[in-house]
Design a protein that fits this description.
heterodimer; A: 266 residues; alpha/beta; 9-stranded parallel beta sheet; 9 strands; globular; B: 410 residues; 6-stranded mixed beta sheet; 4-stranded antiparallel beta sheet; 18 helices; 18% strand
Chain lengths: 266, 410
């Protein structure tokens, strides 16, 4: 890894008395070059950390928007190794790239090789939606060796014991799922958020970023009042669905700016 | 995987050697732990066991009989062939064993809704049946392709009061139905139990589902001993996810002289790439919560399986089968669509029993294994389901209704 990690950026945002904006896009949608331009657009428009998704055949934590983008990316020939190209570009644009991936894709390459290639590409670490710390011994070793962040998820259903166990294994930040369910924009951010963030803070000093359901500047501001970072995915991906690339990138820039204002206006 | 890592994982809860585990979103962990605790307590609770036994006897129709099939056996090198008749259970397959058990657990956990995935429709029908019996709300996810292959089962589920949701994305088969069920579960886990229908998925499902089916092998072992005075030379079952196979194998695992043989779906043949013979072609990987053998490309993306039988059309396999295979205790072979349909027809014509096409794969296995064990051998075959649901597929395959269709067009 060359350059700041997610934790460094979150600390800087905290010093600026604001929350960080974490934006998710899948590599390869609508094609690899456009997806990389879209990630660069996120950074230019005020996104602090970019979460790069690797399209997967069986995305069981994703709702319809990300499912569609992932399926189209795979049909278009997107490969796992494209994520390293994207990570380089995001790092060059000035933000830490965190890779969001279902576990089998890492397992297939091998935890060590994946970690080496990601670190070499300037990647900051991994967010692992279907890997719990209990199953992660090889990844924990590989990330310790390479210094990569490892972000595990907690959910409103997490018991106090699980919160301790999961947050103890995290490095960079803790990903708090705002609501029970899959990814996708929601008209309201779940009422469980504040309670969950409080419960996480009770067991760890790590920053807490909240994801699932945020789609507008107003919601981002609402979440920014309690969390260190606001994670937005489906709403950003939606900008790129069913439109010409230039039009999609313009919409993406506008939404990112709105969200970036949101995280500063808590 | 290095030996030392495999060794460490062997000692972990929910692992079968290097296989199994819990590769799921953290949000589901509390529900999996609740379920694990509920099933462990239930297994020690005389009241639970008595109710399960009562329902097995008075509702499912257990014990299921065994039937010796000498005319079919003439095509198996002269070995004696004995069928374990899970097709005679209420709802027509072994699936009801697990469903009744999990429905009882659902009630114990105070949940009011079950969801299920289904491929052939057997598990969906069984789940809808249990939901009706216990007054639970029920949603069944079924791939669009399968709803077409098994339209009658869709009607049966709806008749029983279940909501059937066709799943359009991915390959629109069993795997995609499971993804959709998992999405529902992670959203509604507080009120909903995911009544998974096979020995796959995250711990404790592979163990729990096997335990609700192990009655098949326990009964069959005693029945075969009673009939023949000996243990069978081989126990043969079809393997999709692998629940009927684990159910009939389990009691025989300590009987080292009994061969355990799983028959996967060879589809259009291994070389065609259109099959579901995981052990013939796949490598270890994670899908839908468990580490097992998985049909995947070099990136780790799941590749599409194929079988004429919806119930075997799954790109992974229960983790305990992966363990039994790697440890050498069980052997796995495959039957192509064509071989399975030949066995299907043969059992109909020689014995007057119409098997499920899934089970016909096991029968095809018996036709191959028979000559290996010789005339003194005894083959115990799991007839996991009946074939009524497959009549449309069979009619197409054998052209049974060609004249009728022509008449209709005139």
């Amino acid at each position: 890894m060359n350059g700041p990690g997610a934790g460094d950026v979150l600390a800087r945002c905290r010093a600026e008395q604001r929350a960080a904006l974490v934006g998710y896009l899948p590599v390869g949608y609508p094609d690899v070059p456009t997806s990389i331009r879209a990630m660069e657009t996120l950074v230019e428009a005020g996104c602090d950390i970019v979460e790069i998704g690797i399209p997967y055949s069986d995305p069981l934590m994703d709702g319809p928007v990300i499912q569609r983008a992932a399926a189209a990316a795979l049909a278009g020939g997107s490969r796992v190794a494209d994520v390293f190209t994207a990570a380089r570009a995001v790092r060059a644009a000035g933000a830490p790239p965190l890779v969001m991936t279902y576990w089998n894709l890492v397992l297939r390459m091998g935890e060590d090789l994946f970690a080496d290639r990601l670190a070499d590409a300037g990647g900051a670490g991994l967010i692992t939606p279907d890997l719990i710390p209990d199953e992660a011994s090889a990844w924990i070793a590989a990330s310790d060796r390479t210094g990569l962040d490892r972000v595990f998820l907690v959910a409103p259903s997490s018991t106090p014991e699980r919160l301790v166990r999961v947050t103890a294994a995290c490095r960079g930040f803790v990903y708090a799922a705002s609501t029970m369910g899959v990814t996708g924009a929601r008209s309201q951010v779940g009422p469980d958020v504040e309670d969950l963030v409080r419960r996480v803070r009770a067991v760890t000093d790590l920053p807490v970023c909240v994801g699932l359901g945020v789609s507008s500047g107003e919601q981002a501001a609402q979440v920014a009042r309690v969390a260190d970072g606001v994670i937005v995915g489906s709403a950003l991906v939606s900008c790129l669905l069913d439109v010409e690339p230039e039009q999609g990138l313009a919409a993406l820039r506008a939404l990112t700016e709105e969200l970036a204002d949101g995280v500063r206006s808590r | 995987m290095t030996d030392d890592r495999a060794e460490k994982e062997e000692q972990r809860v929910g692992r079968f050697g290097a296989f199994g585990g819990r590769y799921v979103p953290e949000a589901l962990i509390p529900a999996l732990e609740e379920l694990d605790e509920a099933r462990r307590k239930a297994a020690l609770d005389p009241a639970f066991l008595a109710e399960l036994e009562h329902l097995q006897r008075t509702y499912i129709g257990r014990p299921s009989i065994i039937t010796e099939v000498p005319r079919f056996a003439e095509h198996c090198g002269g070995a004696r062939v004995i069928l374990k008749r899970e097709d005679l259970n209420h709802t027509g397959s072994h699936k009801i064993n697990n469903v009744i058990g999990q429905a009882l657990l659902t009630r114990r956990m105070g949940k009011s809704r079950i969801i299920a995935e289904t491929g052939a429709g057997q598990h969906g029908v069984a789940a809808a049946t249990a939901a009706a019996l216990f007054g639970l709300e029920c949603t069944v996810y079924m791939g669009r392709v399968d709803t077409e292959r098994q339209a009658l089962n869709v009607a049966r589920m709806r008749m029983l009061g279940a909501q059937v949701v066709p799943v359009e994305h991915g390959s629109a088969t069993l795997k995609d139905a499971i993804n959709e069920a998992l999405r529902d579960w992670v959203t509604n886990v507080r009120t909903t139990h995911y009544l998974l229908g096979t020995v796959a998925g995250p711990h404790p499902f592979p163990e729990m589902v096997r335990d609700f089916h192990k009655v098949i092998g326990e009964e069959a072992r005693a029945q075969v001993l009673d009939l023949t005075g000996a243990l069978p030379s081989a126990v043969i079952a079809c393997v999709g996810g692998g629940s009927n196979a684990m159910g009939i194998f389990h009691r025989f695992i300590p009987d080292a002289e009994v061969r355990l043989i799983g028959v996967e779906a060879g589809g259009a043949g291994i070389e065609s790439g259109r099959h579901a013979a995981r052990f013939a072609s796949a490598s270890p990987g994670v899908l839908q919560g468990a580490m097992s053998y998985l049909m995947q490309d070099e990136d780790g993306q799941t590749t599409q399986s194929h079988s004429i039988s919806a119930g075997l059309d799954y790109p992974s396999v229960g983790p305990e089968h992966a363990f039994l295979r790697d440890s050498g205790r069980a052997e796995y072979r495959y039957a192509t669509d064509e071989q399975a349909m030949r066995a299907f027809e043969l059992l109909c014509r020689t014995e007057g029993i119409i098997p499920a096409i899934e089970s016909a794969h096991a029968l095809s296995g018996a036709m191959e294994v028979g000559p290996e064990v010789g005339p003194d051998g005894i083959l115990l075959v799991s007839l996991s389901g009946r074939g009524d649901k497959d009549m449309e597929t069979a009619a197409d395959y054998f052209g049974l209704l060609d004249d009728v269709a022509e008449d209709g067009e005139q």
